[in-house]
């Protein structure tokens, strides 16, 4: 049950990151929430396999911190890379 809660929190973190960061027109609506869910799921699974108690506070803090970090990094880097890629594509098409 805790895994479901952490996945919902990861999606929420990604949704907040989507609307808090500039350049959201460069990617889809679901991308950052999906990144948050994916990072939270992998982190939670690894930490429980390592023996961290699922009802402890540190597993929540660490998992959600990594979900925030993953969502923010993708949301920050993707618009810049998208603009560069679009410029290259436009230059190639103009030849």
Give a structural overview.
The chain has 95 residues and is mainly alpha-helical. Helix content is 80%, strand content 0%. α1 crosses α3 and α2 packs across α3. The chain is elongated. The mean pLDDT is 95.
**What kind of sheet is the major sheet?**
none
Instruction: Average the pLDDT over all residues and give the rounded result.
Output: 95
The number of domains is 1
The percentage helix is over 70%
Structural class: mainly alpha
Listing every helix as H and every strand as E from the N terminus to the C terminus, the arrangement reads HHH
Q: Which stretches are low in confidence, meaning pLDDT under 50 for 5 or more residues running?
A: none
Distance between the termini: 56 Å
As a whole number of angstroms, the C-alpha radius of gyration is 16 Å
Helix count equals 3
Short description:
By secondary structure, the protein is mostly helical.
Write the layout of secondary structure elements.
Elements: H1 2-20, H2 31-49, H3 57-94
Helix pairs in contact: 1-2, 1-3, 2-3
């Amino acid at each position: 049950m805790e895994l479901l809660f952490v996945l919902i929190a990861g999606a929420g973190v990604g949704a907040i990151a989507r609307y808090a960061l500039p350049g959201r027109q460069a990617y889809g609506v679901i991308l950052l929430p999906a990144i948050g869910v994916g990072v939270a799921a992998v982190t939670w699974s690894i930490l429980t396999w390592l023996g961290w108690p699922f009802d402890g506070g540190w597993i929540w803090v660490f998992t959600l911190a990594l979900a925030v970090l993953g969502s923010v990094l993708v949301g920050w880097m993707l618009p810049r890379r998208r603009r560069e890629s679009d410029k290259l594509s436009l230059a190639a098409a103009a030849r």
